[in-house]
Amino acid sequence: MRKLTAFFLGALAIGSSAAAQNSVPAPADVAAPPASAAKTASGLASRVITPGTGSAHPTKSDLVTVRYTGWTTDGKMFDSTEMRGKTATFPLDRVIAGWIEGVQLMVAGETRRFWIPESLTYKGQRDPKGTLVFDIELVSFGAPPTAPPDVKTVPSDAKHTPSGLAYREIAPGTGTRHPDQHSEVTVQYSGWTTDGKMFDSSVTRGAPATFPLDSVIPGWTEGMQLMVEGETMRFWIPENLAYKGQSAPYGMLVFDVKLISIK
Q: Is residue 13 part of a domain?
């Protein structure tokens, strides 16, 4: 049985993707921070390229959406959202220490250049090594999804199916069509165990998930067929309709799911 989707993979590896053949030109000061750059006690250097429009700063537990390009100090680009043509969204506390510290200095709409010493990147344990230079635009930020207050037990106002699936509507939909068990659906979702620990979320990955409905856990296959496009529903899925105790996460699982579209 295929799992719904991969669980969190741990720290997001900024710089892990291969750079495209075409690259964003390195800034003139890529080799070393200029005298005008601000420096922190950790050794992080930065300067503002474009001021932001916000006044609040993200915390390290926030979900941030950014555009960025990274270079080594010899001007070689190793990663860039510009080459992929889309922003990146991730929990700030999942990335390298220089990003965690540096992005907290920013406000929404700001673009800042960072010179991040190796002690705040991969500590020489993997490529790219040495000081890394990033231009980062902080597009937006906010708190990641939190466990609902009724995550521990099924509330009395939830509806039940004969299989044991429990559910209730969180937000009504705009569509009238329901998927069937063979439909391909696009959704945003977050999942928690009953102790409130989030184990998976398309929201924190910054992109909806698309999959055939007959390839996921039975609770999803059944529950999604109750929904219409635009609707958000909360499901309490007993273990026999999830992973049947054969793999983590164990026990009843709770999902908030928004059905974006049906193919």
A: no
pLDDT tens column, 204-256: 888 899 999 999 999 999 999 999 999 999 999 999 999 999 999 999 999 99
Answer yes or no: do 45 and 134 share one domain: yes
Domain that holds residue 193: 159-262
Residue 223 · residue 254 · CB < 8 Å: no
Band of the pLDDT at 21, cuts 50, 70, 90? low
- Flag whether 22 is in a domain: no
Q: Tell me whether residue 212 is in a domain.
A: yes
Query: 27 in a domain, yes or no?
Result: no
Domain count, the chain: 2
Statement to judge: residues 166 and 192 lie in one domain = yes
Does 216 lie in the same domain as 255?
yes
30 class by beta-carbon count within 10 Å (0-12 exposed, 13-18 middle, 19+ buried): buried
Q: What is the pLDDT of residue 244?
A: 95
What is the per-residue pLDDT across 42-83, written as a single tens digit (0 to 9) for each? 999 999 999 999 899 999 999 999 999 999 999 999 999 998
Cβ proximity of 190 and 145 under 8 Å: yes
